[in-house]
């Protein structure tokens, strides 16, 4: 038993160098892994420099960002207010029937263009038949009394007729003429002629588009209906009505430029002009009503649409340009201390943090008069996340392997 133990003791010095070499290999592998891990982390995060950050095309952060080019526009004097588009009443006619009757035929539909005097509907009107009968009777009586007056003149000249009878014939003729004029005026007020046999033609008083129709075949109509039967308007010119708070009254004047936006046409602005500022506040709402005129050549705007109305700032003096600013959503802005910043995409994937000056801040949007140029691409969604990520990378920027060896 002593001989095998002696042999193991002789082999032990030979195994020690092998064990030491194995330990050195394991230590070197561990050291290589400890320096390789930070390099792998650096490659998986965005590259960062002072005031800027870069994203690769496949970076997951793109899903949280929205970038768009912003343009300059005329700067408003205050935040946009709500308004309502309506008919231009100077170019609108509300048509009702001046006579009672029953609708026998309709000649137009809502949306049709009509000329002045065009037939809108035909109405069977007993009162019109009575008026036409009165007209014919009056003219017949006028002719009869005119002949009687001519005979009285001849007889008076031959001293056959007493002057009293001549004067009576003259008075009868004047009464007949007056009655004929009354009957003719009655038909004229109905816009009807004597030969239509009780059929009244309801006609358009102005040229335009049939915007509304409140009439159906067989309907009984009369002059005192609460709603007009037709609304005809020139929709190429509309009004925008705005009720302003008392505090904004001093900044609004007649002839001022206005920008209008609607939900129906997002991102599109319509130019308008202030045509009337009320002389007094409304007693109930204590607001100032302002009327704006807007051209509508393509008929994109419709009456009763809601609109956002921005009253634009005028030039500071003769020969000076109108103030302009870049409008952007408030989600683009973030604050650090007393200053405002945005992220600008200088090139694809390269975002630069830039200080800007806010000239006017609204509920949803703000206007910048410094720090941005027209056409620059700005982060409109995700700016806060982008700023937080930049700050996080600035604090946790990993060190290079060479720096670790130096220590």
Describe the 3D structure:
The chain is an alpha+beta fold. It folds into four domains: 48-75 and 325-395, conserved putative lor/sdh protein from methanococcus maripaludis s2 fold, CATH 2.40.420.20; 81-88 and 234-312, Efflux pump adaptor protein, beta barrel domain (Elongation Factor Tu (Ef-tu), domain 3, Beta Barrel); 99-122 and 199-233, Beta Barrel (OB fold (Dihydrolipoamide Acetyltransferase, E2P)), CATH 2.40.50; 126-197, Helix hairpin bin (Helix Hairpins, Orthogonal Bundle). It is 29% helix and 32% strand. It is built from five helices and 24 strands. The protein is elongated and about 175 Å long. 21% of the residues are buried.
Keywords:
six-stranded antiparallel barrel; single chain; conserved putative lor/sdh protein from methanococcus maripaludis s2 fold; 24 strands; 5 helices; eight-stranded antiparallel beta sheet; OB fold (Dihydrolipoamide Acetyltransferase, E2P); Elongation Factor Tu (Ef-tu), domain 3; 407 residues; 4 domains; alpha+beta; disordered C terminus; disordered N terminus
